[in-house]
């Protein structure tokens, strides 16, 4: 490609940004802090800090330097960073006509403009309700067996007979397989393997600077996204034919979405919306739960008391059932100690670092003006580490969650809050509890690498993916 064309690709957005800045000088009352150089701003600083496991410190240093509300430029957009309980409440409860969800340009270009993250108002409600009809507990109850089958098969294939495994890539494979089977009805085989390959390429460039230049992560992601969309289009076509032949609408998420009809008896969710939201769920559902399970496994290896408590609870459940029986919804309800361990893991290592909103008009917040069209950047970790609510915040202590009512609202936000609170919460809970049940009752393990660090890319990943030595207690 011609170098001048490449340069113009790079410079065009910079010129347009400079021109639009000259037209619209930010008000005197915008929060303090530099916007940095156009397009790049502070993006590289934050991305580097994430990869060096210093993102929390990077954020805290900014807060110390510029105060609780400051401006910066992230991923090509002027951004206001706010934190604390009041800030979380402000973000999660703001009127949708004043503040909409905002993804970085790269996420929007890769996942598509009809995914839930890009929708607002009635469109958001309509698509979210359709997804929730599949992801709500009453519906998920019927799929515990299917999730369990994937977990049993995974352990047989990747853990049984092995002495050493690397946890994070295996948990990504497991959660991806659960999603493929349960949400998209794609069974094991060549098609699932192709999905995995394109999907991994797609996800790699999601948090990058959105300049589409060949050989960059972003460029590879965009290409992979186009291939995933094509595969999904074919899949939807096949499922439509199956439904017309009388197949059950409750096979998987896609058949469920295709079957929901509006008052006019037409499909309530368009084909584009199905494709874009299926891609969103692939990303939102697999990178998060896999991280949670990985960090629980690391914690259980490091903390014998917590391991003993979780093992006791899971052994009791196992011994109360005939051998080989599937877990029931009631069994999951008895896994209270295990879920408290998961909640404390989510507090200390939240898989989602934070998110963005966009102002639809000038908004006044704490005496400052956040101009129309700017991003608002919220982060999960700041209130999770607030010692007013979580004494000795660096200590791992699942007992904090024995009485959830003692935690004031908007302090504990691993799943976000308000109208956009994570709709996959129950799904994540089921896959985490069932996986931990099988792991602690079937295996013992110890860490091969005692380095307790991790980097964010953008989800947290332990050093070397968490290699462990395992011993099987008995054959599955
Ligand atoms: C431990 C696991 C998970 C964590 C920590 C997590 C966390 C989050 C967070 C922080 C948000 C953003 C909320 C906001 O912007 O206010 C979110 C949104 C979302 N999550 Fe999850 N998530 C998890 C698992 C899942 C799973 C398993 C699925 C799907 C099966 C899922 C689907 C979604 C979707 C579709 C959204 C967008 C909701 C909207 O914009 O209305 N998540 N999640």
UniProtKB/TrEMBL annotation:
Belongs to the cytochrome P450 family. One of its GO terms (cellular component) is membrane. Residues 1-16 form the signal peptide. It is found in: Membrane. This is Cytochrome P450 CYP4/CYP19/CYP26 subfamily. Its EC number is 1.14.13.109. Its main location: membrane. The keyword Heme applies. Keywords: Heme, Iron, Membrane, Metal-binding, Monooxygenase, Oxidoreductase, Signal, Transmembrane, Transmembrane helix. GO terms for molecular function: heme binding; iron ion binding; oxidoreductase activity, acting on paired donors, with incorporation or reduction of molecular oxygen, reduced flavin or flavoprotein as one donor, and incorporation of one atom of oxygen. One of its GO terms (biological process) is sterol metabolic process. Heme binds at residue 422. It holds the Pfam family p450. Its cofactor is heme. It is a single-pass membrane protein.
